[in-house]
Design a protein that fits this description.
It is built from 17 helices and no strands. By secondary structure, it is an all-alpha fold. The chain has two domains: 2-309, no CATH class; 327-395, no CATH class. The longest helix is centred in the first third of the chain and has 29 residues, at 114-142.
């Protein structure tokens, strides 16, 4: 939970440490490990809860509450009906919880008891997870998109994006507009991530020795990492698509991390350091919703929606901009007379933020591309904060003729 709050609210999305950003498309970063780890631990905790095998209406009620909180957080604070995002993090958690809970009940052996019952149950759940990932791989690589080709995994061109557009329309992630990283089709393999957590929870509930449990989680985790890495050679690891290789790869690392924590806390008895994480884990949903509401409220207060909505899409995902004649010469620093007059009116809209650093570029070129030096358009285009500009003006008074 601590990692999830940090990666969702790193502060200023214009200046973020690279490990706190998601991979542009294929591949993974430490940030891409947070969500599958959470679904994995949801599955582990379900085996420890009596309500999982209790009355079905309690399971449905809990899932609906989590889904409703996700919808509320997606609309907060303005609740725009025309673009209110339907998919989301809490919505996916709710769907995975509901699906995994009922699969857990359906696959439970009736006539067995003890460790034999747990073993048979775990084998059935692993089979369900394998079937879900195989079916998702086949659908995504063999079924052609209407008007497209089969196996196209480019952003917005895959079958999952087509389903999101057909089902949700404009109610998707507004940074992409044509697809959603928590889309409907990619929820199928996300259920498999939760099922693998259920398998680990059954292993923890067995009568094996604590040292053997820790070793088993480490060994099974390394197997999962190997399976995901090998599968990733043909079906790339991708968090936005939640590919099958991503499921097994991240479930493997989650099992390794849980095995290490189990060995440190339950086997070695080193419990003092884990108290802050216990507090966060016991209030996971409250922490996530409260941090999201606070971040969006702050974004509205300061007028910077990117703080709450996340970073802009990278060049690998967003459509490429068409270059305008003469702008390249502005960037290269040629004389003002060589640039057409019409370019000055549009250059501020196409010159990427931060290309012309105010500390290095000359005043004439900055004025030509972004307006007078020190003006609001100039500061916005060049990534200069009002605080830094005020501090610079105090430390270095403006020369005559300089605004």
């Amino acid at each position: 939970m601590a990692a999830m709050v940090i990666v969702n609210n790193p502060g200023d999305w214009s200046h973020v440490y690279r490990p706190l950003l998601h991979a542009p498309w294929h591949g993974w970063t430490p940030t891409d490990m947070v969500f599958p780890f959470f679904l994995f631990i949801v599955g582990v905790s379900m085996t420890l809860s009596r309500s999982t095998m209790g009355k079905p209406w309690k399971i449905v009620r809990r899932g609906l509450i989590i889904f409703g909180l996700g919808l509320f957080l997606a609309g907060w604070p303005r609740f725009p009906l025309e673009t209110w995002r339907i998919p989301g993090v809490l919505q996916r958690i709710a769907l995975c919880y509901l699906a995994a809970a009922f699969l857990f009940r359906l696959t439970a052996p009736v006539s067995l008891a003890g460790d034999t019952r747990l073993k048979v149950h775990a084998v059935r759940l692993v089979g369900c997870a394998a079937c879900l990932t195989l079916v998702y791989w086949a659908v995504l690589t063999l079924v052609p998109v209407p008007g497209g080709v089969a196996g196209d995994l480019r952003p917005g061109q895959d079958l999952g994006a087509y389903v999101d557009r057909a089902v949700f329309g404009s109610h998707v992630w507004r940074q992409a507009r044509t697809w959603d990283p928590e889309g409907l089709l990619s929820t199928i393999p996300a259920v498999a991530s939760t099922l693998l957590g259920l398998v680990t929870g059954l292993w923890l509930a067995s009568s094996a020795a604590p040292t053997k449990k820790a070793a088993g989680m480490l060994a099974a985790g390394m197997v999962g990492v190997a399976v995901g890495w090998i599968w990733g050679l043909a079906f790339p690891i991708n968090k936005s698509l939640w590919t099958s290789s991503y499921v097994w790869f991240m479930a493997g690392w989650a099992s390794v991390l849980l095995g290490l924590c189990y060995w440190l806390i339950d086997v070695r008895g080193w419990k003092a350091w884990s108290w802050p994480f216990v507090v966060l884990g016991l209030n996971a949903i409250v922490l996530f919703v409260a941090s999201g509401m606070l971040a969006k409220w702050r974004a509205r207060r300061v007028g910077r929606s990117r703080v709450a909505e996340g970073p802009r899409l990278s060049a690998a995902v967003r459509p490429a901009r068409r270059p305008v004649a003469g702008v390249a010469r502005v960037r290269a620093g040629e004389s003002r007379s060589d640039v057409p007059a019409a370019v000055r009116a549009v250059s501020a809209a196409v010159v990427p933020q931060g290309v012309m650093c105010p500390k290095r570029e000359s005043s004439s070129r900055m004025t030509m591309a972004c307006g007078p030096k020190g003006s609001s358009p100039w500061r916005r285009r060049c990534g200069v904060s009002d605080r830094w500009w005020s501090w610079r003006r105090r430390r270095r008074p403006a020369r005559s003729g300089t605004p």
